[in-house]
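Let's sit down with a protein and look at its sequence and fold side by side. Which protein we use is up to you, so please pick one and set it down. Label the sequence line and the structure token line clearly, so we can match residues to local backbone shapes. Go ahead whenever you are ready, and we will take it from there:

***
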Amino acid sequence: MSKYHFTKDDFKVFEIDGLEPRMDALKTTIRPKLENLGEYFSEYLTEITGDEHFAHVAKHARRKVNPPDDTWVSFSTNPRGYKMMPHFQIGLFRDHAFCMYGTIYESPEKAATAERLLDQIDIIRSIPEDYVVSLNHMRPEKTALRDMSEEDLESALVRLRDVKKGEFLVGKKYLPSNSVLSHDDIFIKELETVLQELVRLY
């Protein structure tokens, strides 16, 4: 029985048609794992950052017609929410799981965060090249750091700063066949390693 790691059945939830059927399956199969991950990694992030972190499991409450294409648990230092600030997130789309850190378009701290990251671009560049960047947290597309030039990174961060819908998240993605998704202990250790890497940008 999986307490933390995602299985192929979890990914198949996003193949279910209809809002209510997909949400019912998401609530019974994926959400308990997100809640468990939230409990574990809110404590872990509090420990490694020195700041208390709170878990926020996606509820998809605003959806009335279209079923969700992804789901996640996010972590921030605000007990009321996470969208307004840089945050960590663990979740999955139909074709991959992910562990990311970044800022999305709702954050009023976007410009200040972008300037800070532009000053830290050497740290971003030192992150392992198999990590990925997302410029839109609602879409599954992600670009490997190895495929981004210095100019690409700078352009992405300038877009975060200057464009209303600009976003920037960096982290790691896992295909359903990845061996780290084979066992709870392996998955937890992998996520700890990724968060230790990403916390350098915190």
In short: DSSP finds six helices and seven strands in the chain. The radius of gyration is 16 Å.
